[in-house]
UniProtKB/TrEMBL annotation:
Name listed for the protein in its UniProt record: Stress-response A/B barrel domain-containing protein
Subunit: Homodimer.
Source organism: Salix koriyanagi
InterPro entries assigned to the protein according to its UniProt record, in alphabetical order: Dabb, Dimeric_a/b-barrel, HS1/DABB1-like
Species lineage: Eukaryota, Viridiplantae, Streptophyta, Embryophyta, Tracheophyta
Occurrences of domain Stress-response A/B barrel (ranges): 27-119
Taxonomic superkingdom: Eukaryota
Length: 128
């Protein structure tokens, strides 16, 4: 559990340094996970939804459960969570926000595997 949280923390710190090289515009924070056996996923999702509604830094939040992927391609990952931030400073502030720090311990304890990507958005086709 602590190893996952430590790896997760080191990962986002590395990306903040990378994004410091002049990245502009929206930042997307994408988390893909496989939950541990026996985890009540609905409770984890409710906690995540509560977190993002309490923290105004999060511009948008989407989540979903895989329904079409082949095991060979999904590698056991089952859920994805995506947050959008207006700028990298908002993402950095979110990472150290007390509500996020508190929820991260709960989230980390529930996951077996995780992939985290943070990147400046390149929108090719606008929504709407």
């Amino acid at each position: 559990m602590n190893n996952i949280l430590c790896i997760y923390s080191r990962f986002w710190l590395r990306h903040l340094v990378f994004m410091g090289a002049g990245a502009m515009g929206e930042i997307k924070h994408l988390v893909v996970v496989k939950f541990k056996e026996g985890v009540v996923v609905e409770e984890i999702v409710k906690g995540m939804e509560k977190l993002v509604t309490e923290v105004d830094l999060v511009k948008s939040f989407e989540w979903g459960q895989d329904s079409e992927g082949h095991e060979m391609l999904t590698q056991g990952f089952t859920h994805s969570f995506a947050m959008t931030f207006d700028k990298k400073e908002d993402y950095a502030a979110f990472q150290s926000h007390p509500s996020h720090v508190e929820y991260s311990a709960t989230f980390s304890a529930a996951i077996e595997k995780i992939v985290v990507l943070c990147f400046p958005c390149v929108r090719v086709k606008p929504t709407g």
